[in-house]
Input
Amino acid sequence: MLLGSIQPSLRRYLRDLVGAADAEDTLQEVLLLVYRKLSWLEKPELLRPWAFRIASRSAFRHLKNERRRLEDPADEALLATMPAPNFAPPAEGLPAMLEGSAISPASRAVLILHFQEGLTLPEVAAVLEIPLGTAKSRLAYGLTTLRKKLAKERS
Output
């Protein structure tokens, strides 16, 4: 029952991150890891972020093996002090907008966790194990790319 409660969110997250073709295999790997390591979870209320962290690691490992992962260089000290962008893409159209290779998997993960799964930016940073400044940078990059994509589609 516990795995069943988090499975739909993880499936959606992985599908948007690694693509539909590889999402089920990655999800199966994630659910096995969650099951095996469940005894390590000290606070039950952190199950969902903890499962997303495992899913993120698995997805990025998969993308790295596929050599599709892009790196986002950033000046962490400067980015940590900057406010996060407040543009929010329409929730119902987010998966369609994230398709393609225009947005890096790293930025895509931040967008999905923040807008689709409703996590705060500090929670997103904790799930992805990145500094808050990097989460803000990836969010800004992803939103800029989405704005350009929307402007191009409207013209």
